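seq/struct pair 1
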Amino acid sequence: MSARRALERDFSSKTVKARRILKHTFDLLMLLLALIGIWIASYYTVRSIIQRTDWQVSDLALFLLQSGIATVYVAIVFAVFFLFVWRKMNNILTQITDALRRIAKGEFNVSIAMEERVDGEYDKIIAGINDMAIGLQEMEQLRQEFISNVSHEIQSPLTSIRGFALALQKEELSEEERKCYLQIIETETIRLSKLSDNLLKLTSLESEHHVMEVSSYRLDEQIKKVVLAAESLWGAKNIEMELSLSNATIQADEDALSQVWTNLIHNAIKFTPEEGHMHIGMHMEDDRVEVSIADDGIGMAKEHLPYVFERFYKADASRNRTLGGNGLGLSIVKKIVEMHQGTVHVQSELGKGSTFTVKLPLNPALEAASAGHPSITR
């Protein structure tokens, strides 16, 4: 929820409370006036009866008679009042039941109108149902978008594989063409495998049951190993690789962070041109470490930057497809970094390269405790 929406809800809550206090005060005054009115009405009723019948009654009998008539008037007034309230509450319950029934059927575009005269727990229930419907509607939109994106990502390589598999059945194909088609099929199969693997990783990371195995290790040594493991990639493009790493020992999930550096470094290599330049730096800031991975590649336009960490987002779909991306790598990076109580952001300029900066606490367990998050499993 955005800060603006939170402020609006806070203001709305205070307004509702103020209205409720004023309403209860007004209701008490009206009740007092009604009781006074009933007592006056009973007094004049008894007086009228005595004047018409010339009864001679004692003061006690007069008081009892007046009290009895007042009781009858109160009973009538309360019967009418409760009948009105019962009809109103029954109408509210009907709306609530209907809304819950529609939500249960998967219809999330549901909203119950808040009446100013609704008090007690009903207004909380109605507000809760409205919030639940909005949340479920947003989740449903995300689910539909996710299914659409996954279907699109799967359909593209499958179509390619099917087309080239049919082409391979032609007998007039040369051996060179056959090898080319087989290589394309292999490439598309690898794309499908990577997509499946990334989906499983992202699902595991977003699961409530995902456990981080935290250990103490040298972060600079880990980054060096990832860079060396990717030497065949940046070496093939004659990329100048520059490292500026200070010594740093961190408490973290080593395998998970290795995935972060692998994704970011491979991404930078992918979008850096032949004989380009990359710089990987790391320095300490109090009890946090900052790692930056910069390249002088093709970069991204400013309007794409807020969305690069979203699932399946691609600044240039055709370009990413050519390079074999599926739009999940940066989503995985962001999720892992956030699980370590860290942050990741990007600076980029079209045609001039990109810089991804990751900031991590040296001890995420202490960071989580101070922020009120659940402790990280060792």
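seq/struct pair 2
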Amino acid sequence: MVNILHISDIHFPSEHMVVTERELKQGIVNFLDNTDDENIYLLISGDITFQGKPQGYKEATLFFKEVIEKSKGKIDPKNILLCPGNHDIVEGSNFELFDKFSYTLRGDSNFSYNNGPSYVIKRMENALFLGINSVYHLDHQFGFVNIEELGEKLKSMSINEGVRRIAFTHHHLVNQFQRDTSSIRNASQLISLLDHYGFETIFHGHQHTNSNLILGKSQMFTIGVSTPGFEMQGYTNGINYYKINQEGLESNRYVYSRDNESGGLLGSFKVLDSKYYTR
């Protein structure tokens, strides 16, 4: 079983949030307290900050370090998965501050995107995680993937049968809104490539809304998560929690509610719905 807590588009500084930083932090900690799962992966799929503001990285670092400390060992820093978003590009330094943020949380440089390739691969005993930088081209307006570079890497790899193959990126692959032009421009090529190498999931953020699609010949689960605290009029703020096993994927959507009680305290995430995808 692979358990993943998915958070995206948190957009620090906290002045842009519809809930306070304290409320959001406590809501995530309450969620972790209320699950019996251990060895949880924390996936942060970009837009740590807002419009590349360095102050956002400082706030986000303190925020996530406290969440990890209060997880009581359920989130090992080495199990944090990251990729940058379009708001994480800092003028004059590209992804340098993002890499510093990643290093501070994980304690290593495994998820660095500034001077290396446009992807990161993390091998675990029962899973292979592929982080894809959909803003490697440094354009804030749309997503794009270096298909040639990624294809050469996947071609050279040997992946054992039965290993869960999980990809994640910032931008969505299919538009939800009529005037949206920000999706990954070469999404069709990306789907074909990941499909060919047996990836079963693609997680993403960017749209600040949830989406659930099944793509490719192998029926890849493609799931987008909403923003946990950034203002989106008419949409709910939340996080996702996934359970992946041999049979398929369970996707649980949580929304933040100030009047939801947990452990005697008001304000926490509550489950909105659960979807089961089987092969």
